[in-house]
């Protein structure tokens, strides 16, 4: 009996599938390859090794299936383009998934994500009708398995005994994306040691999200997103389960390399997007000293946007002393504080800050940003907990991130929510940190209650006084004097660059704290110290405030008067600080109002996302001691004219 002679290439190809399970954990692992005949032995042994050395345990049942494959039956696909999204934790990762689902036009993103938890024990995937939210798998315990697929191995080297999560996922995602009636896929691996997952579609490619679950979690699942009438289900399943696929990773690589030839492409795109969404920033060049009146574009403006609250940037006495000390000490410090960068001026400045804030000691940093980053990242580490107000300054947020401690965000100035969060996140070493005056909202922290909670639960308390030093309390000594407290927070941070009119940041507290920071705060240790001229200007500014409270009193009077002006015009914004947020809403409306105020000679900044939340764009009015009542009254009148009732 004669047999039909097969073409040599058809006889040499085989589909090799491995499925492994354990009687305790159920399905453990699965893998498949399309290999040449001479590779069968090598790949069979490699997949057996993988099944017997899985992180979830060794398999006690392994199935190997070998089938001949016709070359003419194989479809060659180009791999989906790959993008990686870095996230800090799995909560951020899930938010990225939601964004991608919305990009596919799926409004029920949260409901779809919740379904992932129901398919952890399934061997296959959910086939979900995204319009009706109906599951379409014929066997809902088994699910749909995408099979008969591999990558073109001529383009890479692989370790046969180890699972290449990314490569195998990209192959599967590419097949699923090309299946008829499938618009996308979500996947979280059930491997407890692999936390990266992905969302894939033809529309935006394969998007790797670095954290979609906590390490050690067995949570995992896969959903194929289907959009068509139910009459197309059989066609979809047939493609996923029967169509043989080889994915060309090399072709995808070459295409990606071609796209990267213009390495500025993404930057150009991002800048264009900022412009389209009214979020693009540019400089306003000021031609005079920072005072209540400035010159810009050869025109004079009333400056209602500066943080120089006490008008000390151009004070004759401050400038004179700075020039005098510049002659004596030079303009540069020549080194970091722990090498050659500590001068007599640095010591005097720190002594004066400690005296002004009524603490044992103080330490000067190059900026307020560096102070927050240095303090938080040196005091807290992995395993600790930080409780941070949701509206804290970016420098606090970055310090929390650098510390690697667990950061728990509580509702803005909500002490009840803070206590609930403390009770829910016990720790041996923890910190409560908050702005004293919130830089974009102007409101004041509930310091007495925050300190009560810190003391009750054995947590450090830290307050950022950037916008309260020189403004609040008797002689501008800050938020503690504002509340007339005798006990102080454990850590008081502030700046020299706002009310004091200079540059730099500082930290005050017990000597023990300051000695620790000298030895542990990296942003202090590894930075060249402040210029002697800068230190001198801060010394003289502090001396002025401590000896004469005229400027502080004038500023506090202006704050009270501007509150009256806004109220008289029906504007609801009120503040106990020098910062008045006039909420407008849209970014474009805030920009338009700011531009019209500029036309009338009033410099008032429009604050937009990401500085504030989307939809809460605002005019940020900052008062100075030397603004006249006439100027403040006119500003309130113009704000009312251009934004109406707010």
């Amino acid at each position: 009996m004669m047999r039909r002679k097969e073409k040599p290439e058809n006889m040499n190809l085989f589909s090799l599938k491995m499925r492994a399970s354990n009687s305790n954990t159920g399905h453990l692992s699965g893998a498949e390859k399309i290999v040449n005949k001479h590779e069968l032995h090598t790949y069979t042994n490699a997949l057996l090794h993988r099944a017997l050395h899985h992180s979830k345990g060794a398999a006690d049942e392994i199935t190997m299936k070998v089938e001949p494959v016709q070359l003419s039956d194989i479809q060659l696909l180009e791999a989906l383009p790959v993008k990686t999204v870095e996230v800090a934790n799995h909560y951020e990762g899930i938010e990225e998934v939601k964004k991608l689902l919305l990009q596919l036009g799926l409004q029920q993103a949260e409901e779809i994500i919740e379904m992932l938890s129901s398919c952890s024990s399934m061997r296959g995937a959910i086939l979900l009708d995204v319009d009706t939210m109906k599951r379409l798998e014929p066997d809902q315990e088994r699910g749909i398995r995408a099979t008969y697929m591999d990558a073109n191995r001529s383009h890479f080297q692989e370790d046969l005994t180890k699972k290449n999560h990314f490569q195998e996922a990209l192959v599967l995602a590419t097949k699923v994306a090309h299946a008829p009636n499938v618009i996308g896929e979500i996947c979280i691996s059930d491997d407890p040691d692999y936390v990266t997952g992905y969302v894939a579609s033809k529309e935006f490619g394969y998007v790797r999200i670095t954290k979609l679950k906590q390490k050690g979690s067995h949570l995992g699942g896969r959903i194929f997103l289907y959009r068509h009438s139910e009459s197309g289900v059989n066609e979809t399943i047939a493609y996923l389960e029967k169509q043989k696929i080889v994915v060309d990773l090399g072709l995808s690589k070459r295409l990606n390399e071609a796209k990267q030839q213009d390495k500025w492409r993404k930057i150009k795109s991002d800048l264009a997007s900022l412009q389209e969404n009214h979020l693009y920033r540019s400089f306003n060049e000021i031609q005079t000293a920072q005072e209540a009146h400035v010159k810009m574009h050869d025109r004079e403006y009333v400056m209602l946007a500066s943080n120089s609250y006490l008008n000390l940037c151009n004070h004759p006495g401050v400038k004179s002393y700075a020039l005098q000390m510049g002659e004596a000490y030079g303009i540069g410090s020549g080194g970091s504080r722990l090498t050659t960068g500590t001068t007599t001026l640095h010591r005097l400045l720190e002594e004066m800050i400690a005296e002004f804030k009524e603490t044992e000691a103080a330490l000067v940093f190059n900026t307020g940003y560096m102070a927050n980053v240095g303090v938080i990242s040196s005091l807290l580490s992995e395993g600790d907990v930080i409780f941070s107000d949701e509206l804290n300054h970016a420098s606090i947020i970055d310090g929390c991130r650098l510390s690697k401690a667990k950061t728990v965000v509580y509702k803005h100035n909500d002490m009840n929510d803070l206590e609930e969060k403390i009770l829910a996140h016990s720790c041996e070493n923890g910190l409560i940190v908050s702005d004293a005056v919130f830089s974009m909202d102007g409101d004041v922290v509930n310091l007495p209650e925050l300190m009560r909670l810190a003391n009750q639960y054995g947590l450090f308390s830290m307050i950022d006084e950037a916008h309260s030093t020189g403004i609040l309390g008797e002689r501008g000594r800050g938020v503690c004097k504002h509340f007339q407290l005798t006990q102080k927070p454990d850590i008081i941070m502030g700046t020299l660059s706002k009310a004091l009119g200079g540059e730099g940041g500082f930290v005050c507290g017990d000597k023990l704290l300051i000695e620790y920071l000298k030895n542990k705060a990296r942003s202090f240790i590894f930075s060249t110290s402040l210029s002697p001229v800068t230190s001198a200007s801060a010394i003289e500014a502090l001396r002025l405030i401590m000896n004469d409270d005229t400027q502080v009193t004038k500023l506090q009077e202006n704050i009270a008067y501007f509150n009256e002006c806004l109220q008289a015009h029906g504007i609801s914004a009120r503040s106990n600080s020098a910062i008045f947020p006039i909420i407008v809403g849209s970014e474009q409306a805030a920009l338009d109002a700011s531009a019209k105020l500029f036309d009338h000679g009033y410099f008032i900044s429009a604050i937009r996302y990401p500085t504030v939340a989307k939809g809460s764009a605002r005019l940020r009015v900052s008062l100075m001691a030397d603004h006249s009542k006439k100027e403040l009254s006119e500003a309130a009148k113009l704000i009312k004219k251009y934004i109406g009732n707010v």
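The two ends are 93 Å apart (CA to CA). Residues 35 and 639 are 73 Å apart (CA to CA).
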